[in-house]
Amino acid sequence: MLEIKKLFVNIGGKPILNGINLSIKKGEVVILFGPNGSGKSTLIKTIAGFSGYSVTGGSITLNGKSVLEIPTEARVRHGLGIMFQHPPVIRGVKLQQIARYLCKDEAKIDDLAGKLSLKGHLARDVNFGFSGGEMKRSELFQLMLQNPDMLLLDEPESGVDLENISIMGKVLDKYLKQEGKSALIITHTGYILDYVKATRGCVMIDGRFWCAGDPKEMFRNIRSKGYEHCKVCECPQTN
After folding, report:
1. Which residues contact 189 (CB under 8 A, 6 or more apart)?
2. 105, part of any domain
3. Among 113, 117, 134, 198, which one is least packed by beta carbons within 10 Å?
């Protein structure tokens, strides 16, 4: 599904990612841990093709196709979907308008809006005046309607209370159980692990991977010993 080999990325001439190797197969869910400033969001935005992220070496392939030379919208058409850490506010565009653009099935839109408690938000401008939890539910709503095969989720539970995490987690878990759906999820709180069954976890520090393993066990170790312990982990990340 997603293959990254020896990826080096600079921002404004400053090296951020240093030789990243990552392989995610169809049906796999990978959790990405790491301290602030370690390069996690840079990795996701580089995969998505955002401007300002200069790839100086390596490759990214999605469904067997190199995507480094194609724009973000082409990567989306190729099956990529992203959920932002800080979703944008879009004035003058109703949430229902975007929903109908992404999906022609009104019944599906109505059903998903109900599951994410968003029926009362469909007639409102996208994310305008929304609470943090409403913004994240709106973002997940749009992502699910897009129906991507490879999801990139940047801290989906950031700034969200436990009730909203529960709502989102259940919808996301059901989606990822569909055949062929994969995800790379950044988390600091680890709450998403209560809902989504992840294949493995990886730790990024200083723009490179240091270890990999069972995500729940890794998160427990990070909470008790901190990220520096990951540098001496006995399970180095190799693919």
Report:
1. 157, 158
2. no
3. 117
For 13-51, the DSSP string reads TEEEEEEEEEEE-TT-EEEEE--TTSSHHHHHHHHHT-T
CA–CA separation, 75 and 84 (whole Å): 16
In the sheet that holds 14-24, the strands lie side by side as 14-24, 2-11, 54-62, 65-66
In 10 A of CB 190, how many CB atoms? 18
Per-residue model confidence as pLDDT tens for the chain (239 residues): 899 999 999 999 999 999 999 999 999 999 999 998 899 999 999 999 999 999 999 999 998 899 998 999 999 999 999 998 788 899 999 999 999 999 999 999 999 999 999 999 999 999 999 998 899 999 999 999 999 999 999 988 888 888 989 999 999 999 999 988 999 999 988 899 999 999 999 999 999 998 888 999 889 888 888 887 777 765 544 44
pTM, full prediction: 0.90
| Domain contains 101 | no
Element spanning 118, H or E? none
> Is 90 contained in some domain?
no
Residue 188, domain extent? 2-85+149-232
Give the separation between CA 81 and CA 144, rounded to whole angstroms: 9
Q: How far is CA 118 from CA 138, 225, 226, in A?
A: 7, 40, 38
| CATH code of 25's domain | 3.40.50.300
In this structure, are residues 22 and 4 in contact, taking their beta carbons and an 8 Å threshold?
yes
